[in-house]
Specification:
The chain has about 120 residues and is mostly helical. The protein is built from 6 helices and 3 strands, in the order H-H-E-H-H-E-E-H-H. The two termini are about 30 Å apart.
């Protein structure tokens, strides 16, 4: 992973966070932190670092001024597309001991664990 994306200063969890934001445009920052089990203060720092790199933008919706919605910028979407293959290679290397059936079971269990099912 670090060979592919380390030069960009990203860790695997940070890239995964970008992927989640990209797949869920407008996701509330609090919900993202809760889902990933990241302390709100740490999530704020992470999102601020993404903003500094122009990968993510925060919006405060008019209907709920207390929440913050997250979306990828065009640069963020481009970054994900450019590095998705490297991240996929990393995932493939991590799961090499698992069969396709075991991998599917793992994904289902993880989705259930975090409440996506």
């Amino acid at each position: 992973f670090f060979e592919d994306l380390g030069a960009h200063g990203l860790r695997p969890g940070e890239f995964s966070t970008l992927l989640l934001i990209g797949r869920n445009p407008g996701i509330r920052q609090g919900l993202l932190a809760q889902t990933l089990r990241i302390k709100p203060a740490h999530m704020t720092k992470l999102i601020r670092s993404f903003e500094d790199r122009h990968l993510v933008e925060r919006t405060i919706p008019d209907h709920d001024r207390r929440s913050v919605e997250l979306s990828l910028t065009q640069a963020g979407r481009d970054f994900i597309e450019e590095h998705r293959a490297g991240f996929a290679r990393h995932e493939t290397n991590l799961r090499s001991p698992l069969s396709a059936s075991e991998l599917q079971t793992l994904k289902q269990l993880l989705r259930k664990y975090v409440g996506f099912d």
